Amino acid sequence: MSRVLWTVWVLGAVTNLSKEEASDQAASLSCDPTGVCDGRSRSLNSMPSGLTAAVRSLDLSNNEITYLGNGDLRGCVNLEALNLGSNGINTIEEDSFFSLRRLEHLDLSYNLLSNLSSSWFRPLSSLKFLNLLGNLYKSLGETPLFSQLMNLRILKVGNIYSFTELQEKDFAGLTFLEELEIDASNLQRYEPKTLKSIQNISHLALRMKQPVFLLEIFADLSSSLKHLELRDTHLNTFRFSKASISETNTLITKWTFRKVKITDGSFSEVVKLLNYVSGVLEVEFEDCTLDGLGDFNIADMDKIKNIGGIETLTVRRLYIPYFYSFYDMSSIYSLTEDVKRVTVESSKVFLVPCSLSQHLKSLEYLDLSDNLMVEEYLGNSACEHAWPLLQTLTLRQNRLKSLEKTGETLLTLKNLMNLDISKNNFVSMPETCQWPEKLKYLNLSNTRINSVTRCIPWTLEILDISNNVLESFSLVLPQLKELYISRNKLKTLPDASFLPMLRVMRISRNTISTFSKAQLDSFHTLKALEAGGNNFLCSCEFLSFTQGQQALAQILTDWPENYLCDSPFYVRGQRVRDTRLPVSECHRAALVSAVCSVLFLLIVLTGVLCHRFHGLWYLKMMWAWLQAKRKPRKAPAGDVCYDAFVSYSERDSYWVENLMVQELEHFNPPFKLCLHKRDFVPGKWIIDNIIDSIEKSHKTIFVLSENFVKSEWCKYELDFSHFRLFDENNDAAILILLEPIEKKAIPQQERFCKLRKIMNTKTYLEWPTDETQQEGFWLNLRTAIRS
């Protein structure tokens, strides 16, 4: 019983583990809403489960999948692209692709498939791309694999080691291919007419180490192929034989040699082949090695008048191990007379012999980029009668240093219209230069020039001086139609009056901060302007112009993506089209006017309120109070020099000066009174005089009358006395009522509250009109002063 339980537990654990593994594998796929699923490099060892009809593209390359079963892709009925490359797949069941009727792209490259089955591909009626490179199969099977793939356009088969034979039935059923790549590096058997069954091939890339079957393959393809590319082939044993080729009129127009090794002898054989067949217009050598000394078979070369009508010759990165021992190539000069376009890039060319240049009588285009040309040897190459029809010359990235010498050297090229001398190290530009008179296009980009002069020919229609260190451009070029001046240090657009015919200008990635509508309008013929990537100052004027012109996008080709604000700092990085500045930035004058208006209204309102509510008086009173507060609360006894300070209205001065002064100061003993007319210090602020006089007096006498109520200075004296009366808790104030004053006659404003308060709390002396009572008045006054 325990054994049964143990078995059940083990089975349950295995089932759960399988479910968890399937769940983990499904989770390892990342799919977007359109059904494109990416499972590359996830260390998957089996096909993910749970794939549904929602999957349209599935990439499982670079994993460890070894097996593809019938049900793994059954639910993927809408799958259009499947990449299973670079796994370890060694088995695919017969009906694995049965439900993939919409599949257009299938990649099974670089797996471990040793046998291919036609049943895999039978349901794939929509397939356009099939890659079977890098597997272990020796042949393409016993039955035709691709006969049902009527829509197939790109096919890649073969491998570098085990693929050894091509059979006549291999490509049966295929009528048209845009691209066919065959890795037949170790090809040992080729059945005649194997490739002849394909009626039309645009491009065949054939990788084979030895050229044993090259002529047979060429013969089968001569009437169906347009572009033949030969890769990784050692042509040292290649020998041309007329017997192998029955058709001399071929459809092949281009032949590419990529990573091919050629000897002096095999070069002559290739020339014989190209001479024998007609139709080849373009020959290309890329990353090839010429393992020889240029010792071509002169006897054979003399029999060849041209190379089958070849018009275009391209050589890139040609390696010649014994370059400095190379022979004179005069034996092949005659082969070049009909060539119209020649490109020799990155091949350490430092000289084109004058005699070879003179033989290139039909040459219209010459590209010698990334070589070792200098002015001295260029002069030998562009000798008299050299390249008589040459229109375009490219000398990009050579060793040229002098614009003046370069221009003089090329004066022999009477038909030269386009010159590219970019990526040379010119640095400076002379004031004047000589150039071929028909020159229309000049490329001086990446030459480190820091200024432009009249050295640049005025006949130009296209000028490229981008990626230099120019700070200004002020040349008059009346015929210029296109100007490329990006990646410099220009701060403004060029003057339009210097370029009246300009149609296209690219001035991106400079240090331009702004441009205006007037500047753009001044270019009357301008159709396209690329000015993005500059340090734009997003001012109100610039934003108003750029955001207000709906038609700006028709001229600015890179608008709005490349137009970003550089300043002000708070909008840096924002697109110019989307930037909004504060109102205070763009309407400063209006804002200042509004603020000034508001301030003026506030000042007027404040003045009105101050006048209405006596605000000025309160301010004066506050200042006086502060001044009083700074004084000591009680003056020292030695500082008291008056018996009384008399506060009175100027209109009551007669009573004070002729009656009071006479009665008090001429009494025995006399009283010393402080009167403002007599005792105030001249030149001293009146407030300070009032404060000092009150503090230096034993008493303060207020002569109250209606005139007193109306006097501002009397009010100050009353207030300061009030401070002293209440702050020091003394009885310093003496009130004399010179004439009856009703309390209701005293104004109700707050500034008269002290007078009302004193009259309510203090006993006052009333001046009698009866002369018999006046003596008693003076007696009481003297008594009050002495108290």
TrEMBL record:
One of its GO terms (cellular component) is cell surface. It is found in: Cytoplasmic vesicle, Phagosome membrane; Membrane raft. It is a single-pass type I membrane protein. Gene3D superfamilies: Ribonuclease Inhibitor, Toll/interleukin-1 receptor homology (TIR) domain. Keywords: Cytoplasmic vesicle, Disulfide bond, Glycoprotein, Immunity, Inflammatory response, Innate immunity, Leucine-rich repeat, Membrane, NAD, Receptor, Repeat, Signal, Transmembrane, Transmembrane helix. SMART domains: LRR_BAC, LRR_TYP, LRRCT, TIR. GO terms for biological process: cellular response to diacyl bacterial lipopeptide; cellular response to lipoteichoic acid; cellular response to triacyl bacterial lipopeptide; cellular response to type II interferon; defense response to Gram-positive bacterium; defense response to virus; detection of diacyl bacterial lipopeptide; detection of triacyl bacterial lipopeptide. Disulfide bonds join 31-37, 354-383, 433-455. One of its GO terms (molecular function) is amyloid-beta binding. InterPro entries: Cys-rich_flank_reg_C (IPR000483), Leu-rich_rpt (IPR001611), Leu-rich_rpt_typical-subtyp (IPR003591), LRR_dom_sf (IPR032675), TIR_dom (IPR000157), Toll-like_receptor (IPR017241), Toll_tir_struct_dom_sf (IPR035897). Pfam families: LRR_8, TIR. Residues 640-785 form the TIR domain. Residues 1-22 form the signal peptide. The chain crosses the membrane at residues 589-610. PANTHER family: TOLL-LIKE RECEPTOR (PTHR24365), TOLL-LIKE RECEPTOR 2 (PTHR24365:SF17). Cooperates with LY96 to mediate the innate immune response to bacterial lipoproteins and other microbial cell wall components. Cooperates with TLR1 or TLR6 to mediate the innate immune response to bacterial lipoproteins or lipopeptides. Acts via MYD88 and TRAF6, leading to NF-kappa-B activation, cytokine secretion and the inflammatory response. May also promote apoptosis in response to lipoproteins. Belongs to the Toll-like receptor family. This is Toll-like receptor 2. The gene is TLR2.
